[in-house]
Amino acid sequence: MRKRVSLKRLSVDTIKKLLQLIEKHIESSQTKRKRGRPKIYSDSFILLIYFIKVLRNYSFRDTVFYLKEILGEKMPAISTLHYRFNKIEMSYFEELFEEVLKIMGIDEGEEIEFMVVDGTGFGYDDKQRLNWMRGKKVREVSSHVRVEMMVGRIKGKRDVIIGVEMGKAYTDERKLLKEMMKGIKVKGRYILGDALYGMDVEVLRLMFEKAREVIVPVRDGLHKRVRNPLRKIVKWMYENGREKYKDRYVVEQVIGKIKNAYGQWESVKGLEMAKKEVWVKVIAYNWAQAIIFFVFVAGYMRHLSSFSPYLLRDFSNTLRIE
Predict the structure, then answer these.
(1) How far is 105 from 286, CA to CA, in rounded Å?
(2) How far is CA 240 from CA 21, 130, 234, in A?
(3) Which of 87, 113, 294, 276 is closest to 191 using CA atoms?
(4) Is the separation of the CB atoms in 7 and 284 below 8 Å?
(5) Would you tell me how many other CB atoms lie within 10 Å of the CB of residue 309?
(6) Distance, CA of 18 to CA of 55 (rounded, Å)
(7) Scanning 20, 134, 208, 273, which has its CA 20 to 30 A from the CA of 300?
(8) Beta strand 158-167 pairing with 187-192
(9) Torsion-angle region of residue 172: left (phi > 0), alpha (psi -120 to 50) or beta?
(10) Span 24-80, pLDDT tens digits
C-alpha cells in the first residue's frame, strides 16, 4: 500500500534530494573561503541536520541521536551545531526556494490561474508583557517574524508558494509586498488581497504588472468617495469579482498547513535565526507539493503501457517518501 505524502514526514533521503538542487551553489561558496581552518563537516551536511531539526521540531540532542541511528555517521558536537547553524548563509535558502520552483515547472513569464497574498507571523524568543494597559488587563505579545507570502494556483490545482518576504515584528505588510513583488517571475489571470492593499496606490500598480485583474476590496468612505483613477478601477473589479474573491482562502489554508505541520513558534532567540527556520518550513511545503505531483504523475504513467517499468522504478527511487 502506497504511503500518503505528509508534510511532517519527509524522509532524510528526500531532504538529501532537495539539498542536491543547490549543491553547486554550496560548493562555490565554500571555495571562496580563504581564512580559517578547513571545515570538518560540509555545509550540505549541516543543512541536512538543520532541516531535520526544524521540520521534526527536535532538540539538538534528539536530532543528533536520530541522524546517528539513521545515517550511521559521526555527528558534530552540539556546540558545533550551535555555531554552524548561526553561520548558515541566507542565500542558501533563497537559492533553494528558486530551484524548487523550477523543478515544479514554474517558468519565468508563465501565466498561472491566480495569485493570493497575505501576511502572517511566526513567533520566537519569549513573550513580553504590556503593562501600560489600564486596569487588570495585561496583554502578552510575542516577538515574531513578519512574513509576507504569495501563493499561486498552478496546473493540477496545486497551491504553491511563489513569493516570500520577511521582516521584523509589526513591519507594514505593504512594504514587504513591494519588496517581494520585485522577485515574482510569473503572472496570474488575477490577484487577490485584503482591504489593506487597496489603500496603497503603489501596491495596486505593482499588482497590475503581475495580473490582468486585481480583486482587492476598495470602498467609498463614510464622507469621501474613491477619487484615484487606479483605485476606481480596482473598486469596479472587486464589485464585479466577488465570486473570485472567495478564492482568498487558499493563502490562509497554506499558512495553516505549514503551522499545523511544523509549528508557529521558533525555539531561537534572534530574528535572523527565526527567519532561517521559516525559510526551511516554506521550502519543505513546496517540496512536498512537488513530490505529491510527481507521485500522481507516476501513478498515471503506470496505466500507460508505452512507458518502461524500469523508468517508473528509477523514478520512485528518486523520490522515496518515508
Answers:
(1) 12
(2) 43, 43, 10
(3) 113
(4) yes
(5) 10
(6) 14
(7) 20
(8) unpaired
(9) beta
(10) 888 777 666 566 677 889 899 999 999 999 999 999 999 999 999 988 888 999 999
User: Which amino acid would we find at residue 196?
Assistant: L
Instruction: Give the integer Cα–Cα distance in Å for 208 and 190.
Output: 9
- Cell numbers for 45, please give them: 551536511
Distance CA 51, CA 63 (A): 10
Q: Which residue has the cell 503593562?
A: 131
Q: Which residue has the cell 541522524?
A: 67
Distance of CA 138 to the CA centre of its chain: 33
Here the cell at position 103 is 523543478
Query: What is the pTM (predicted TM-score) of this model?
Result: 0.85
Q: What is the pLDDT of residues 85-126, one digit of tens each?
A: 999 999 999 999 999 998 888 877 778 999 999 999 999 986
Q: Which amino acid is at 318?
A: T
210 φψ region: left (φ > 0), alpha (ψ -120 to 50), beta (else): alpha
